TrEMBL record:
Highest taxon in the source lineage: Eukaryota
GO MF term set: methylcrotonoyl-CoA carboxylase activity
CoA carboxyltransferase N-terminal domain location: 1-109
Pathway: Amino-acid degradation; L-leucine degradation; (S)-3-hydroxy-3-methylglutaryl-CoA from 3-isovaleryl-CoA: step 2/3
GO annotation terms (biological process): L-leucine catabolic process
InterPro entries (alphabetical): AcCoA_carboxyl_beta, ClpP/crotonase-like_dom_sf, COA_CT_C, COA_CT_N, MCCB/AccD1-like
EC number(s) given by UniProt: 6.4.1.4
Species of origin: Prasinoderma singulare
This protein's name: methylcrotonoyl-CoA carboxylase
Annotated CoA carboxyltransferase C-terminal domain residues: 117-355
Length: 372
């Protein structure tokens, strides 16, 4: 399984029943893995072996059930409701492969089929994405108003829910989409790393829809390897060889900017929506952090804090950060290629993809040594 994948030949495992011991590595090493709910079992050791070896009592589902691997371990990429659905999902994966040309071209060029417009009007984007970037929404609503037929094939939909990864088409041009749906955890970072590798294997452009305040912080997440997993994600973004297009549809803060292919990561095109912001972090949070640091410095030197001055200093700092976060401030300094009306996003992306598809792109995807 490793050798075909390394040579660019996609591998798919569809697990209908048990895949144990050494057999567990076949779905584990496949590029795409589909498991049938309530039937598939993938583990190194089943319940009897686990009980004899460790004394632990566990069920088949707990050790290697399809639902567990789809939601918790990430071994499964797609959870099928039954065997027929598993075959359908496998056909859907294969349909995304383009084996006819070194650079995939729109279907309309191949057989004259006109691209299917989204089923939902672009005007909806003005209400789907709030002018206040702190208001959450499901980014799938944005994707559905950009892609052909509002159809997209979501990768690992039950794993790392804070990042939507999907295969879709925009005016006939195939793309791999990464879109934020919340803060990034380790699961999201691992999911994104695999997805970027798959998109490079397919040889289609990447579209980043960025609305990210950053990676999750705290003792639990630091000890769980958030730096390590985030590094893998950013490594994949950096070394990806297919064209990348970024649209900042909300926040683009700190390390989240790195992960979602900010300016420093050389996207072919980078645009911003009018309400978007780009900064180290939000103005309120950054002002609060600086206030805490100032208080700790005063405490260590034995100085008394003047609360009135501290509050004024915090407010002035917050105001200055808000001004520099503003999309017009950052766009004027070439942090993006321009501010676009959300309703024009599909048309702008079509022009960008057309430019990308004018020439071949090449180069093997190799991420270097990774701290796994």
């Amino acid at each position: 399984m490793a050798l075909p994948s390394a040579s660019g030949v996609p591998t798919i495992s569809v697990v209908f029943g048990s895949s144990t011991a050494g057999g567990a590595y076949q779905p584990g090493m496949s590029d795409y893995t589909i498991m049938v709910k309530d039937q598939a079992k993938v583990y190194l050791g089943g319940p009897p072996l686990v009980q004899m070896a460790t004394g632990e009592i566990a069920t088949h589902e707990e050790l290697g059930g399809a639902d567990m691997h789809s939601r918790t371990s990430g071994v499964s990429d797609f959870l099928a409701s039954n065997e027929h659905d598993a075959v359908r999902l496998a056909r859907q994966v294969v349909a995304g492969f383009d084996l006819r040309a070194s650079v995939p071209i729109p279907r309309s060029v191949i057989d004259g089929t006109p691209p299917e417009p989204p089923r939902y009007p672009a005007e909806d984007l003005l209400s789907v994405a709030s002018a206040d970037i702190r208001v959450p929404y499901d980014v799938r609503e944005v994707i559905a108003r950009l892609v052909d037929g509002s159809r997209f094939h979501e990768f690992k939909p039950l794993y790392g829910a804070g990042l939507v990864c999907a295969f879709a088409a925009i005016n006939g041009y195939q793309v791999g989409v990464l879109a934020n749906n919340g803060v990034l955890f380790s699961q999201e970072a691992q999911k994104a790393t695999q997805f970027i590798q798959l998109v490079n294997q397919r040889g289609v452009p990447l579209l980043y829809l960025s609305n990210i305040t950053g990676f999750m912080v705290g003792k639990q997440y630091e000890q769980g390897g958030i730096v390590k997993h985030g590094s893998l994600f950013i490594n994949a973004v950096t070394n990806s060889t297919v064209p990348a297009i970024t649209v900042v549809i909300g926040a683009s803060y700190g390390a989240g900017n790195y992960a979602m292919c900010g300016r420093a990561y050389r996207p072919r095109f980078l645009f911003s929506w009018p309400q978007s912001q780009c900064s180290v972090m939000g103005a309120e949070q950054l002002a609060g952090v600086m206030d805490i640091i100032a208080r700790e410095a005063a405490k260590s030197s034995g100085r008394k804090i003047n609360e009135e001055q501290a509050a004024q200093r915090k407010m002035l700092f917050k105001t200055a950060v808000e001004e520099e976060n503003d999309v017009y401030y950052t766009s004027a300094r070439c942090i993006d290629d321009g501010i676009i009306d959300p309703r024009d996003t599909r048309a702008v992306l079509t022009m960008c993809l057309s430019a990308c598809y004018q020439g071949a792109w090449s180069g093997a995807f190799y991420s270097g040594i990774s701290r796994l």
